[in-house]
Amino acid sequence: MGCLLLISAFAGPRFGIILWWLIDMDRWERAFDEILWPLVGFVFFPWTILAFVAVAPNGNPTDSDYIWLALAFALDLMSWASNMAKRYTM
Q: Total structural domains in the chain?
């Protein structure tokens, strides 16, 4: 698990999603009832999707899991904001 996070930090979260999905498809199937949310997450919120699968493998996060999900969502928002700032400052 820690190795996957390290790889994701350097190669990007989308690479981590694909790698983790190939390694443990059953966990992804238990975390999500349908394919729509992982696909939307892959495109727009990859860190949040990785965090959700990590903390809620059965699709039911507990109270403390929401802290990790909020941090991952904030990381996704910061990534979007960083890309927008780079685009409009050039």
A: 1
